[in-house]
């Protein structure tokens, strides 16, 4: 995983994202492949990912004519054939070299993929823009603070992320999908996936345990959600409907939620790649 000391407090990504995540690119590759972001599903991006050890990424969303659109920014650490890659990009008609301000190195832009890429020997920066125009991949003098407690939370996980302002989102899911008319002021939501040792299961694919942790500023808010989740568990059918949200709620609420003062943690049983895809669909990634 990334060891840079500054990553204990900030990440070199723009603020204002819907979600931020860290990933061990090797251990979390099945998970990264589940991210349904169009710009990530191209050959050049996958080649970079093949040489990557650690990833920090942010997903930004906005509403456009009633549809949710997304763009991303990514910083990666690995062992990249940067010189050969830059030569290949220079010979490709689909990529155009872009100048950077000051002494910053140039980057490359693909209008067809909407990607801006800057490659160094041990680092790669990739971003997209809302209007498919060139956008410098490196965030200059702008970083995003890592929430308190996230460093401890992500230890031992191959994938871990957070939602910065999850209150409206969580309340919207409960109201719109489960018809529970409540508003819950969640301060921060953490999401993590822990790989299960292959000796502990017989499936052909890698399995993971999911952790979802809600943080609150007020103890009363944590108690309120705790009561709501306990009620959902008591009334949950033994065989939930085929609705994705109901299936995922059943997976995350298989075990009783655990409260620690102002936090509530949900821990799933083993989850397959298909079930992880449901998890990502819930968070609109």
Walkthrough of the structure:
By secondary structure, this protein is α+β, with helices and mostly antiparallel strands. It has two domains: 5-145, no CATH class; 150-282, no CATH class. It is built from eight helices and 14 strands. The chain has helices at 29-32, 43-50, 82-91, 150-153, 167-178, 219-235, 244-252, 273-282; strands at 10-11, 19-24, 52-64, 67-78, 96-98, 107-110, 115-119, 123-128, 144-145, 159-163, 188-195, 208-215, 258-260, 263-271. The radius of gyration is 20 Å and the shape is elongated. The chain starts with 9 loop residues before the first strand and ends with a helix.
Sheet with the most strands: spatial strand order: 5-6-7-8-4-3-2-10-11-12-14-13
Oligomer: single chain
Characterize the overall form.
Answer: elongated
Secondary structure tally, helices? 8
- End-to-end separation: 22 Å
- Count of domains: 2
Strand residue content: 25-35%
Care to count the β-strands?
14
Topology order in helix (H) and strand (E) letters: EEHHEEHEEEEEHEHEEHHEEH
Q: What integer value in Å does the Rg equal?
A: 20 Å
Mean pLDDT: 79
Key attributes of the depicted protein:
285 residues, alpha+beta, twelve-stranded antiparallel beta sheet, two-stranded antiparallel ribbon, 8 helices, 26% helix, 30% strand
Short description:
The protein has 285 residues and is of the alpha+beta class. Helix content is 26%, strand content 30%. The strands form 2 sheets. A 12-stranded antiparallel sheet has the order 5-6-7-8-4-3-2-10-11-12-14-13. The chain has a two-stranded antiparallel sheet with strand order 1-9.
